Amino acid sequence: MSAIIIDGKKVAEEIRADAGLRVRALVDAGGAPRLDVVLCGDNAASGIYVRNKGRVAEQLGIRFTLHTPPADSTTAQLVALVRELSADDDVDAILVQLPLPGQVDQDQVIDALDPAKDADGFHPANFGRLAEGRAVTAAPSTPAGCMELLRRYDVPVRGARAVVVGRSTIVGRPMAVLLTNADATVTLCHSRTKDLSAVCREADVLVTAIGRPRMVDASFVKPGAAVIDVGITPIDGRVAGDVDRESVEPVAGWLTPVPGGVGPMTIAMLMQNTVTLAAARRHAAAA
Amino acid sequence: MSAIIIDGKKVAEEIRADAGLRVRALVDAGGAPRLDVVLCGDNAASGIYVRNKGRVAEQLGIRFTLHTPPADSTTAQLVALVRELSADDDVDAILVQLPLPGQVDQDQVIDALDPAKDADGFHPANFGRLAEGRAVTAAPSTPAGCMELLRRYDVPVRGARAVVVGRSTIVGRPMAVLLTNADATVTLCHSRTKDLSAVCREADVLVTAIGRPRMVDASFVKPGAAVIDVGITPIDGRVAGDVDRESVEPVAGWLTPVPGGVGPMTIAMLMQNTVTLAAARRHAAAA
């Protein structure tokens, strides 16, 4: 037996193509969606992510505006910028690229977002709706992308045991919520979890967002499980996932590769979210 | 071996006494806290809960105002009432007693709360902060009460496996979040969970919010586990918990009885939340 390799690149292409069609419909109806990104500081990975987001947005016909406040910006300055974009009627969606520099109170900046323009679903009002099991317009891109991969590959989720490793606001916590909302029985693990490999072996669906290259080997994986690798660690100009593919591939039922698994989905879902927020705003304005 | 029986009545008394002292300090500083409760419909249990809340509030010197809009109220009418109370500077804390009648969109009513007056922490902005692992002023009363019981009885939570049964917004979901934030490895179970008793047996801390009397017997309990029974089902004029005490008591390490376990904590934590919200408002007004 060998795992089915989940082709995130291909699924992401389909989602981008669909988003592109929806952009054209919005253009015909009066205006292209506009996504504004705030990039502050000199985090190299963030710079690459944002450049890729901009490239894809422009390919799809989404108007992309990048704001690069200086690395020594204060919380008040970033809050003012986010408030200004929130108030600008021309802006449909806003993404604050995380992490922000250490001197900035990230929570205050996120709180300043208009929840209706929250491209990544991190504003607490949106996160709270999601965590309460309500419908949201835009769910956090990376976990939403993981759910989409599970759906497209018909991985059984309802009633399955799912284990999520990592409790970040960006991946682990919303991932656990989305899996719970999809009727999985979810265990959320983190740095304090004891005997991690044994807990992971309970999983029919295992999602790792650890950031330690190749830490997850076959001893973490129940035979036939779906393994979704969200870990992306840059090494020597390439990226490595949390999963030791050579060890896990013979045991797992499904496996996302790194690169080409979850990574491309994050941008695709962000584009989908941008178009959905823009459509909702147009609809609200027309009503 | 026999479980330590957790005396929720006694702990609740201590919390109420502490809240009472804090009320007196606020009175000396200019005004007693005010809690407004909205009770709509003829749910018998809700009526009893609200009466008990009013009685305790008055004992502590909290001004208690009950609003009883007619059972056939529309969503718009309840939203208008909640908005009015939110705008009233004299009101410190608001509780919308759930469930609301079937014709009402409960989410819209909760969304109308001023998050700064949200006595039970159900507004999505507050729930989102909690779910993101941030500090909140008032956490949902029942799960906060369960955490307080665990703390007072020195039940090890950090690094422990915790299992929560039930994914309601009122109990199960916030309970899972609070346990995660306290560094437990949490599994959230629900109606779609397979082999529930086996999953529960993994728990060092087991919290049940099922509502099926005496369903949880010794086969659900790992020897020495703490069992927190949130289930309250009225039977023949008395209340029964989810736990079959006769079966579980010899196996568990700690056990909350019903009545006298979690029940009294819900009201005590609501009083604590009310005082905390009032103090925060006074503080904000003075700043």
Features:
3-stranded parallel β-sheet; alpha/beta; 6-stranded parallel β-sheet; 2 domains; 287 residues; Rossmann fold; homodimer; 10 helices; globular; 11 strands
Polypeptide structure, described:
The structure is a homodimer of 287-residue chains. Chain A is α/β, with parallel strands linked by helices. Chain A has two domains: 31-118, Leucine Dehydrogenase, chain A, domain 1 (Rossmann fold, 3-Layer(aba) Sandwich), CATH 3.40.50.10860; 141-264, Rossmann fold. Chain A is built from ten helices and eleven strands. In chain A, the strands form three sheets. In chain A, strands 1-11-8-7-5-6 form a six-stranded parallel beta sheet. The first copy, chain A, has a three-stranded parallel beta sheet with strand order 3-2-4, with helices on both faces. A two-stranded antiparallel sheet of chain A has the order 9-10. In chain A, α7 links the parallel β5 and β6. In chain A, α1 runs parallel beside α10 and α2 (44-60) packs across α10 (262-286). The longest helix of chain A has 25 residues, at 262-286. In chain A, 52% of the residues are buried. The model of chain A has no long low-confidence stretch (mean pLDDT 96). Chain A binds chain B through residues 107, 122-134, 158-159, 161, 167, 169, 173, 176-177, 180, 183-190, 192-194, 199, 202, and chain B through 107, 122-134, 158-159, 161, 167, 169, 173, 176-177, 180, 183-190, 192-194, 199, 202.
Can you say what the CATH homologous superfamily of the largest domain in chain A is? NAD(P)-binding Rossmann-like Domain
CATH topology of the largest domain in chain A: Rossmann fold
Task: Write the element-wise H/E pattern of chain A from the N-terminal end onward.
Answer: EHEHEHEHHHEHEHEEEEHEH
Percent range for helical residues of chain A?
40-55%
Shape of chain A: globular
Mean pLDDT across every amino acid position of chain A = 96
The largest interface is: A-B, 36 and 36 residues
Reported for the largest beta sheet of chain A, the result is: 6 strands, parallel
Low-confidence stretches of chain A: none
Number of beta strands of chain A: 11
